[in-house]
Write a structure and sequence with these properties.
Blueprint: H1 3-18, E1 22-24, E2 33-34, H2 40-46, E3 51-58, E4 64-71, E5 77-82, H3 89-100, E6 105-110, E7 115-116, H4 124-144, E8 148-154, H5 156-167, E9 172-176, H6 182-192, H7 195-200, E10 204-206, H8 216-219, E11 226-231, H9 239-248, E12 256-261, H10 273-288
Parallel strand pairs: 1-10, 2-7, 5-6, 5-8, 8-9, 9-11, 11-12
Antiparallel strand pairs: 3-4, 4-6
Helix pairs in contact: 4-5
């Protein structure tokens, strides 16, 4: 479990003493998290098949987003990756590369504003606006090159990827460790807590910015090939929620796939042979048109 989720669980436990409702706020899910700079030399040494380059993306409100591009000569498509709420490129680029190792794609990583090498104050609305800005700029490049662009979001990043898919028609989409709604997630957190916490926390007060946030309604409007991925042992966003998203998507069987990865948890479902095979199948589907 990431640090914000552990903090949220601890706060919920403290409510046993307070005996009141719990308010789920944006700050429980998104908060600034710095990280060391990316060690490009180490990254290049560990992954010689890739060329690594850094860039910065200015936003209209004055923030600066840190971007890392990892390119390989045999790439058939580009993947834009949005990580979870603890994801920072300086710490986790190697993890992303393990997921995509030997897959014929270029990989573009972007730190959320306020995270890692990016500046600015993170809010759900700001992260969504950033995601669209990054996607649109990259889409212009890949379209000019005649290359497909896949958007992959994990955990918190899956909501950004879903937001982009809802606003644009993508070549392909990967939603990993995702959730239906904030309300469902809060209820699941309560169910996982101890007896005394469940006794004390009778209800959740969801902040307006988070009410009905999630991918359930978006899944009902998807119009691009999509791969739903979740770890069998995920206790943060359990497989049943990804199953619900898969069931809600109004797509033919050829355009949607549900992958529940045995033995994997919340953060490592894509670091698996099963994901490798499923991503190749998604590439094949995109190239068939």
């Amino acid at each position: 479990m990431s640090r914000p989720l552990r903090r949220l669980a601890a706060v919920m436990c403290c409510l046993v003493l307070a005996g009141c409702a719990f308010r789920v706020q944006e700050s429980h899910l998104v908060r600034p998290m710095p990280a060391p700079p990316t060690d490009l030399a180490a990254l290049r040494a560990a992954t010689p098949a890739y060329t690594a380059t850094e860039a910065r993306i200015p936003t209209p409100d004055g923030a600066s987003l840190y971007q890392l591009r990892l390119q390989r000569p045999d790439a058939r498509a580009t993947v834009l990756y949005f990580g979870g709420n603890g994801y920072r490129i300086g710490l986790h680029a190697g993890h992303s590369l393990r997921a995509y190792d030997a897959l014929p794609v270029d990989l573009v990583l972007v730190d959320h504003r306020g995270y890692g090498g990016s500046t600015g104050t993170p809010t759900i609305a700001a992260l969504q606006a950033d995601a669209l800005q990054v996607y649109d700029a990259l889409r212009a490049e890949t379209a000019a090159a005649g290359r497909a662009l896949i958007v992959h979001g994990q955990s918190l990043g899956s909501f950004l990827a879903g937001h982009v898919a809802d606003a644009r028609t993508l070549d392909g989409l990967v939603l990993e460790s995702s959730m239906t709604t904030t309300e469902d997630w809060a209820a699941a957190m309560r169910a996982r807590s101890g007896f005394w916490t469940r006794l004390a926390v009778r209800r959740f007060d969801i902040a307006p910015a988070l009410q009905q946030a999630g991918n359930l309604e978006i899944a009902r409007r998807l119009d691009e090939p999509v791969l739903f991925v979740v770890g069998e042992r995920d206790v943060v966003t359990a497989p049943r929620f990804t199953q619900a998203l898969y069931d809600a998507a109004p797509l033919p069987a050829s355009d949607r796939r549900l992958l529940v990865v045995p033995g994997r948890g919340h953060n490592d479902a894509s670091v698996s042979p099963q994901f490798h095979e499923a991503l190749l199948a998604l590439l094949d589907r995109i190239e068939r048109g």
